[in-house]
Design a protein that fits this description.
Helix content is about 15%, strand content about 35%. It is of the alpha+beta class and about 130 residues long. It has one domain. It binds zinc ion.
């Protein structure tokens, strides 16, 4: 078992039928990001608007992997609960009046549109270990 560190943020889309857009970014490879996210927690493509996309990005020679998802509200709860248990960020870094407490991923304390930036350390089985013969 190893862990994958990622930064994330949830964007709330309230117009029409609610959906949540969740972004996770990691310095690790796209392969490891795929391995760390259980497939049952990815949005189901049969649902309207639901989708997910893994990407490798290159920013001036620095590579990082991104998971971009859109969840209808009923599929968002399980993934938020799952992420909350692996959070490693401790306190709100915003200085506008709140007392440094940690806000939930879905929190609207500082914006109606986006939740707080958060950091997770997700335990997972490395793909190389999965391929070991039994
Ligand atoms: Zn705050």
């Amino acid at each position: 078992m190893t862990t994958l560190k990622a930064q994330g943020q949830l964007r709330h889309c309230f117009w029409g039928e609610y959906y949540g857009q969740l972004i996770l970014i990691t310095d690790e490879s796209e392969e490891l990001l795929r391995a760390a996210i259980p497939s049952e927690l990815l949005p189901k493509p049969r649902k309207r608007k639901a989708k997910h996309e893994f990407q490798t990005c290159d920013d001036k020679g620095k590579r990082y992997a991104v998971l971009s998802t859109i969840y209808p509200s009923e599929e968002l709860d399980p993934v938020v609960k799952w992420l909350e248990q692996y959070r490693i960020d401790e306190k709100c870094k915003d200085r506008r009046g709140c007392d440094g407490e940690r806000h939930p991923i879905t929190g609207c304390e500082h914006s109606l549109d986006v939740g707080p930036p958060f950091e997770v350390s997700i335990p997972f089985t490395h793909p190389d270990q999965q391929e070991l013969p039994l």
